[in-house]
Write a structure and sequence with these properties.
297 residues, alpha/beta, Rossmann fold, Helicase, Ruva Protein, domain 3, seven-stranded mixed sheet, two-stranded antiparallel sheet, 9 strands
Length: 297
C-alpha cells in the first residue's frame, strides 16, 4: 500500500497545526477511523477507471481512501483553509497519487460541468447535514455521467432517502432521488468514528443510476415531475384529487388525470411512487402511449 490513511492523532495534529476549529454550521465532522473509510470506499465500488467527485473532503480522510483505490478525485471544499491544506496532506501520505487529485475551493451547489475537465463517473462523500439533499440532487442533475453514488449522511437523512412509498420517512427526497436511480441502505456508522463526535448516528446510502432511464431525463420534463412531487407533499393528508386540484384546474379534471394514470383519486398524494408521478404527467400531456420513454417501473 502506497497510501497511509489518517488516524485520530493525525486529525488532531492537523487541526492544531492549522489552528482550526470545526464549524457546526458547515457540518465539519471528520472521519478518523481507517476501517470506516475502507468500508465506504469498498461499498462505492470505485476503481482506477473512475473519476470521483468528493464533497467536503475536510482534512482528507476519505480522499486518501479513494486515491488508494486508484480513482481520480475532484475534491470540492468550501472552507479555504482546508482546501489549501489538502494537497499537502495527500502528498505527505502518498507517493505519486497527488497527480490524481484536483481541489476546488467552492460551494458544491455552484459546481457545474464547466468547472471540471473530466466527466465524473461517481460521487463519494461524507455529506454535511445542512446541504446533504440539495447537494445530492444538484449533482445528479448537473452530471448525468455520474453512475454511482455512495454518501454518508446523518441517519435521519439516510432513512428519508431510502424510504419506500407509504413509509413514515417517505418524503420529497425519497421520490426525487428515485427519478435518477435505485436507492439502497448500506448500514449505520457510529458517532465515535468522527472528530468532533456528533450527537447522532450516520448512515450509508448508495444510488445506482438507471442504465436506461424508464422515463425522459431532459431538464424540462424533470422539473415538471418535481413540481408534481412538491405539490403532493406540500398538502399531506389530502386526497390526490384535492392535492392536484389547482394544478389540473378543477376537481373533476384532477380526478380524470389521475384515473388516466391508473391512480385512485382518493389516495393521498404523498403515497405515490416516482413511476406514478411520471405517469401522471405523461398521461396529462397525452404522451402516455406515444412517449419514447414509457414508464416501465
Amino acid at each position: 500500500m502506497t497510501i497511509r490513511l489518517l488516524g485520530r492523532t493525525e486529525i488532531r495534529h492537523l487541526a492544531k497545526e492549522l489552528n482550526f476549529r470545526p464549524r457546526k454550521s458547515l457540518g465539519q465532522n471528520f472521519v478518523h477511523d481507517a476501517n470506516t473509510v475502507r468500508r465506504i470506499v469498498s461499498a462505492s465500488g470505485v476503481h482506477r477507471h473512475d473519476s470521483v467527485i468528493e464533497v467536503g473532503p475536510g482534512l482528507g480522510s476519505l480522499t486518501l481512501g479513494l486515491l488508494d483505490r486508484g480513482a481520480s478525485v475532484t475534491a470540492v471544499e468550501v472552507d479555504p483553509v482546508l482546501a489549501h491544506r489538502l494537497p499537502q496532506t495527500i502528498a505527505e501520505h502518498s507517493h505519486s497519487e497527488i497527480h490524481r487529485l484536483t481541489v476546488l475551493n467552492q460551494d458544491i451547489l455552484t459546481l457545474t460541468r464547466a468547472d471540471l475537465e473530466t466527466e465524473p463517473t461517481a460521487l463519494v462523500a461524507n455529506l454535511p447535514y445542512n446541504i446533504a439533499v440539495p447537494a445530492l440532487l444538484h449533482l445528479l442533475a448537473e452530471f448525468p455521467s455520474i453512475k454511482t453514488v455512495m454518501v454518508m449522511v446523518q441517519a435521519e437523512v439516510a432513512e428519508r432517502l431510502a424510504a419506500e412509498p407509504g413509509g413514515k420517512d417517505y418524503g420529497v427526497p425519497s421520490v426525487k432521488v428515485r427519478f435518477y436511480g435505485r436507492v439502497r441502505r448500506y448500514g449505520m456508522v457510529s458517532p465515535t468514528v468522527f472528530w468532533p463526535i456528533p450527537r447522532v448516528y450516520s448512515g450509508l446510502v448508495r444510488i445506482d443510476r438507471y442504465e436506461t432511464s424508464p422515463w425522459p431525463t431532459e431538464e424540462s420534463f424533470r422539473q415538471r415531475v418535481f413540481e408534481l412531487i412538491d405539490i403532493a407533499f406540500a398538502q399531506r393528508r389530502k386526497t390526490s384529487r384535492n392535492a392536484f386540484l389547482e394544478w389540473a384546474g378543477s376537481g373533476n379534471e384532477s380526478a380524470s388525470r389521475l384515473l388516466a394514470a391508473s391512480i385512485d383519486p382518493a389516495r393521498r398524494g404523498e403515497t405515490l411512487s416516482i413511476a406514478e408521478f411520471v405517469r401522471l404527467l405523461q398521461r396529462s400531456d397525452g404522451a402516455g402511449e406515444s412517449s419514447d420513454h414509457p414508464v416501465r417501473l
